[in-house]
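Folds abound. A case:
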Amino acid sequence: MMSTQQDKRIHFIGAGNMAGAMLRGLVSSGFKPGSLSCSSPAEAETKRLVDELGISASADNLEYLRDCDAIVLGVKPQILQSVCQELAPFLASADRQPIVISIAAGTTTQSISSWLKQDPDLLPLVRSMPNTPAQVGMGASGLFATAAVKPDQKALTQEIFEAFGIAVWVEDESQLHAVTALSGSGPAYVFEFIKGLADAGVSLGLQPDVSRQLAEATVAGAAKLCAVSHDEEIAGLQRKVMSPGGTTEQGVRVLQSEELTATVRRAMEAARDQSLYLAGEGPALAKN
């Protein structure tokens, strides 16, 4: 049965990788292409999405805003201010207030409201932090809603982000810095670990393509097993692989002696601190 949210009109400003991943997810999950649109000066990107998905597109950010239920700001942070300033007159004169959803990293709801010339207490605005696995329908997004977001608008936002993965809400906007450090930056940490597994396999005598395939499948399989065993502690899953005196136990001992967990924590703290800096909420990190 089709969700009532799938009749909503949603416009994306921006047609890059993340906006494209979100639009593909929406169409795949049942949203009508005729209710979806995007705008961007990048004609090749918009044409590709039109041809692939059957949505509408324009170089004019304002063309499809009339009667929109949601406006997704899918542009890079460095041009977000100018885009918001372009939208401000439309929002000021709109008969009804669409929800505004930002996917720009490090840009606060206070800044976005100011650029849109809207009262932050009255503007229905969601700030989000999706991640790149959205491109394969396995994204993980953190969401924060301002007080003006209505229940039906929150439900629409939830459905938009669940079209390409999971979506969780945080109660305080400052928690998005932790989300950025964990799921936003996390895929790169996992890629580093996959690379480490693959490189180590080669050093032990495996062919590079064989080693990479094994590393990729091992990480994907372990993540899936962890997800379907959500009620079980991760340490318990780990113990099931570790026979006393066996090979896995020896390998895990090395990882523990090298303080892998503490290293991951330091990496996340560095990412969190950089997120604070980019949002103007913390000092610049010292360059090594």
Notes: The chain has eleven helices and eight strands.
